[in-house]
Amino acid sequence: AARTSGEPARAYVPSMGQMFLRRFQLVTQFRQAMETGQVKIHYQPKISLPSREILGVEALVRWRHPEFGDLHPDEFVPAVEAAGLVDALTDFVLEQSLIKVRKWMDRGLRIGVAVNLSVRSLANLSFPDSVSAVLKRHDVPPELLTLELTESGVMADPQRALPVLRALSNLGVVLAVDDFGTGYSSLAYLRQLPVDEVKIDKSFVFGMGSDLGDLAVVRSIVELGHSLGLTVVAEGVEEDVARDQLAAMGCDVAQGYLISRPLSEERLEAWLQARTAQ
Ligand code: C2E
Ligand code: CA
Ligand code: CA
Ligand code: CA
């Protein structure tokens, strides 16, 4: 709502005013926060369901804010997007993630990384060139990079997204549709997009042990995904039962708290060591 000048915002709409102020602060501080190391990436392992070996990690951004504490992306990425700063975030995450992948390669480990994209990147015709450049800079093969796009983001305007998706696909990176099952698209429509992977939304995976409807959704995504030649990933795997059901259905990859929470760089290294020492 508009207010007249001189009106004390806090007296009238305290929570809205504070929210606005906080959003404003976050946006103005964001670039510097990336430069000073307040913005960090946590990595969540993804495992192969038949073999349980680690295939890769998903990069999930975190902000250790001096005043507001540890912020999750849901608390600042929307503001960063609205302010037109999301390309800087994507560049930062790509850069940091590929540095990690390169370090693992140098130690003989083949671990890929998945980076979340904002829908805005799909409208940026120079984005594929910047992805190509960062891969070259770190000498990482494209198949070790997965780019995750939300279903709603791609489907909002598939015709507009298509040229960028095609160019990314031609680079050889893996394209994944995130949060699958929550949008309005039909799986058949996916056939027209150059995607390689679907990630079943965690809301269905949480419920599959107790809700037959969720179980049916998961099963049909696995079957149709496979019939379209896609890799199927389940996120939000929190319990043994879910992992075992998914493995029995032939789901390819699992990610979730059962396997590991998202970990800081240091903790991920410890996790990897413990696992490879087995
Ligand atoms: P997402 O891509 O769907 O990521 C999965 C989210 O589920 C993460 O939340 C992760 O911590 C959480 N999660 C993973 N396994 C489990 C589980 O077993 N149980 C439960 N309850 N949760 C689980 P997070 O890290 O808070 O990220 C939220 C969203 O923020 C992400 O959802 C993604 O859309 C966005 N995001 C994260 N990093 C970036 C980034 O670098 N750039 C952009 N544009 N968006 C990002
Ligand atoms: Ca994701
Ligand atoms: Ca491809
Ligand atoms: Ca997701």
Automatic annotation (TrEMBL):
The EAL domain extends over 23-276
What is the official name of this protein in its record?
EAL domain-containing protein (Putative c-di-GMP-specific phosphodiesterase class I)
Q: Which organism is it from?
A: Actinophytocola oryzae
